[in-house]
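Structure record:
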Amino acid sequence: MKDASAPIPLVIHASHEAGAKIGGIGAMLEGLLQSNTYNIGVKRTMLVGPMFGWDSMLMERLNSPENQLTIHYSSLHGVFDNVAPHIREALQKVEESYRVALLYGKRTFGEREHEVLLVDVSNPDPDYIAQFKYHVWEHYGIDCARYSHDPEFNLYMAIAQPLYAALKALKVDEGLSPNERFIIAHEWLGMPVVFAAQMNEPGHWRTVFYAHEMATARLLVESHSGHDTRFYNAMFKAEEQHMDLETVFGDQSYFFKHAIIRQAIRCDNIFAVGSLVVHELRFLGGDFTDTNIDVVYNGLVSRDITIDERVESKRRLQQYAKNLLGFRPDFVFTHVTRMVLSKGLWRDLKVMEHLDELLWQEGKTAVLFVLSTSVPAGRSPELVRQWEAEYGWPVGHRADTGDLVGDEIAFFFNGVEPFNRTAKACRVVLINQYGWDQEHCGLRMPEEMSFPDIRQGTDLEFGQSIYEPFGISQIEPLNFGALSCVSNVCGCISFVESVAEDIGGPTNLVIADYVTVPEEFPIKTPFDALDIDWGVRDWVETENSATAAREILNKLPRSRKAMQKMLEDGTALAHRMSWDVVAERFFLPGLEKAREPNG
């Protein structure tokens, strides 16, 4: 049997963010792959995934110096001579066979460097894709013809075989036993690479499905006005009565992600990023009911600061508020997030309505900065300064100048603006711009301001999502002594609370419960919960946001001494939620479970 203390020779991470960080999985990989504990436990790491040659924005991100990618071979970039001749020939042979373009290189993560293998399928050979889809149907029962209208489905089916062929061409697994080589599929997008390995070399790889969410659950939460209030009440009641998801919500086979996720059971282990995702996976029924699923949380990149640094960052935020609004708030609240439905931004305003009255009674003031945009690439600094001069951006916004777009329009005109018209002690400012400095955000932002200030100077970070498998961003400011107000479906809660219990300290976490319904709405079966609509959810949100507001008010620090205590508690918490802790306690033991008992 393999010595469990010896490093694992090879771990391959299959992800759409293999080449560059785009979102949450990229943040997870960034944290894990620079962890000392991970790198002691894993000898060789490779990231494999797509190269988006047809998308100029994603290619710009891939090639950006900030991405710290060193290209050793890429026919798309015209780089051929930074690898040995036999490697170049092997990769070119794969490219010719599949009519694809490959990139092989290394990315730097902190002080560590890991290999990257990407494939561009802008003009692939359709025959190999058709053949692969046929074999997927034959082996896994996935009706690929049914889903072939979907570009995303086609992309990840197209990249699987050439990626696997390129791995074999590089001989990355040469001389290794099955228990020494792992493929981790990050979400459904990585599963086709697992399919390729399992079909080409049955039993020769250990495979893990890493559920960073449960796509069917997300769809059901987001697509109905009852959102999390409806879905989780139905799921929990169904658990009690031993019903599965499709019994309650009907056939989901039309959804290709659902069909792929159901095949995660064919992996040697399953990771879930939070305990609620475990429930969602078991809700699929069948073999998911009792298969092993390990919770492997996300971690935090902890960083120590002094109370003086924290106070200075808050001072900059307060000065920015004064420059914009004419007053220096006692408290600064923030929400750094994507402008998407799942983040539940309207809930921030509900809590703020209650806080406004409570703070007014106390003679205190507050400003909430919402840093969120529908344009991830950001607006040009020139445009921002023009809007700032013309109509007072970001306090004022317009939808006819290219300023507000997409979901920003409804959030501002239906939420922020009405709130600001009636509020007595608080204001909300929407900064719909990428970046947090004077260059990107206008001349009224203090010149010395930088992005760390919004994390380490805030008194409270909101994160009241309707679907949030973990939620790194929501709890990052805990490290710096802030409060964090999250919804009770946020997957990070159990990790935060367990660590706080271990160290015998407070969590600085405020949990807003938007799932528990009043007794006037009895739920005896999961089908009763299906009647929860916008009206019921809004009722629950209005009532329970008041509870969250009162808890926030009670926990807000009123003195430097109180800020110091919260900083100490938050720092201790973050240290125990680091990526080293995650690697040691959850990730590496989970890989051990994927090995055969006597392999």
